[in-house]
Amino acid sequence: MSDTMLLRIGIAVALSLLFGAIIFFGRGRKSGQGRRVQREPSVGADGRVEPSLGEQLAGSWGEAPAQQEELELDGSPAQSELGKRVSDQFDRIVSLYVAAKAGNKLRGQDIVVAAEKAGLTFGHMDVFHRLVDGKPELGPIFSVANIIKPGSFEMSRIAEIETPAIAFFLTLPAPVAALDAWETMEPAAQRMADLLDGVVLDEERNALGRQRIQHIRDELRAYDRQHAAPPLSKPTRW
């Protein structure tokens, strides 16, 4: 099997995991499911229970317009190589979402403008990528896809595209340290959320807060320590 085919399979698996997570987060979760304790629902002044942010957004997640076809992983000669991973090996995916506020949608043209202002490049598999400055051949630090299948942004019809959210994801190992990749992705997500008048959600579809950010930083710092190159042994003195 060729290296190109292995790479495509690796990317396909990564996107399958991401879309599987998206479908999962778009469904109601069972009581006690997930790593975090769910907040008690707030009660409004009129006595009615107000749904959480995740519950407000859940209804529109996972919608897939019938006219959209599955992503062609075979590629085409005209497909951009910018943002293509140099290796099919990865062991973790870290994700965030920028979601439209309840009752709204993110529009394709606005996403393109926001992505450009956030320093992203449109490229491989018709999604956006954050590349290493001056070294695009190293592959993406992270990528941004549409949560509506097939996940791509078709530029020929970008004015027609509307989506409830976009997904930010980095696969580890990345071309930079895991913590550095996160410190690049999280501000970009916040920037795009500001530009799109959206909200940033974590992988569990909760509003991204300081405590969660610190937890992710600690996890990725530990990941970097675990995957650091072993120190060179000192030469033996005779």
TrEMBL record:
Parts of the chain that traverse the membrane: 6-26
InterPro entries (UniProt xref): Cell_div_ZipA, ZipA_FtsZ-bd_C, ZipA_FtsZ-bd_C_sf
UniProt keyword Cell inner membrane present: yes
Top-level taxon in the UniProt lineage: Bacteria
Record membrane topology: Single-pass type I membrane protein
Cellular location(s): Cell inner membrane
Record has Nucleotide-binding as a keyword: no
Residue intervals of the ZipA C-terminal FtsZ-binding domain: 90-220
Region (Disordered) location: 56-78
Family matches, as SUPFAM superfamilies: Cell-division protein ZipA, C-terminal domain
Cellular component, GO annotation: cell division site; plasma membrane
Role according to the record: Essential cell division protein that stabilizes the FtsZ protofilaments by cross-linking them and that serves as a cytoplasmic membrane anchor for the Z ring. Also required for the recruitment to the septal ring of downstream cell division proteins.
Protein name: Cell division protein ZipA
Organism whose genome encodes this protein: Thermomonas aquatica
Name of the gene encoding the protein in the UniProt record: zipA
